[in-house]
Design a protein that fits this description.
It is built from one helix and three strands. It is mainly beta. It is elongated, with a radius of gyration of 27 Å.
Length: about 90
């Protein structure tokens, strides 16, 4: 069940409540009886890192024909720079 954050408009009391999706929102502060407001924050799911969509849920090398978006992929960048070629005259 999701956890919702509430804050009282009168006394400022803030707390979290675990409620079902079908439950009505709380409206009365348990501390002072004042009016509550639901606080909204960032979403609970974040996708961090580059390329997570290419590597997650893949088992081995897949066929590129089944994923048409992969044909328009960004150019590959090397993680380490190539060694500089040195020319020495003897």
């Amino acid at each position: 069940m999701p956890t919702y954050a509430y804050a009282c408009r009168s006394c400022g009391h803030a707390f979290d409540a675990v409620q079902s999706f079908s439950d009505d929102a709380l409206t009365v502060c348990p501390e002072c009886g004042g009016e509550l407001r639901k606080q909204y924050g960032s979403i609970g799911v974040t996708f961090n890192g580059s390329g997570f969509y290419r590597t997650d849920s893949r088992s081995g090398a897949g066929s590129s024909a089944s994923t048409p978006a992969s044909s328009k992929s960004e150019p590959t960048k090397s993680a380490t720079p190539a060694p500089a070629s040195s020319t020495t005259s003897s």
